[in-house]
Amino acid sequence: MPILRNELGDVLRDARLGQGRTLRDISSDARVSLGYLSEVERGQKEASSELLASICLALDVPMSAILREVSVRFEMAEGLIDTRSLRRMPVMPAIPDTVPELLRSIKQ
């Protein structure tokens, strides 16, 4: 099972590197120490919601996009996404429609 702080750190690092930015760039814009940001990215520290919001603002990436990517990584680890087709597997079993059965029983 993945660990939330590790997955979150990986997603934040991927976003930063995808923009070609350094830890120093983001730490300055987010007003967080470079060392602490590095520890968050490496999954050694938990990011508070306020810190995460500040980092997302510095990255100019919506927090929902970061959390969505983390969620997808968890779904893949939990086997809820078929990685061959990237199709989401149902989490809850389908609830059968009982109305037709009820109507048949009333007519009898």
From TrEMBL:
Gene3D superfamilies membership: lambda repressor-like DNA-binding domains
Residues of the HTH cro/C1-type domain: 12-66
SMART domains cross-referenced by the UniProt entry: HTH_XRE
Pfam families the UniProt entry points to: HTH_3 (PF01381)
Alphabetized GO MF terms: DNA binding
Protein name, entry field: Transcriptional regulator with XRE-family HTH domain
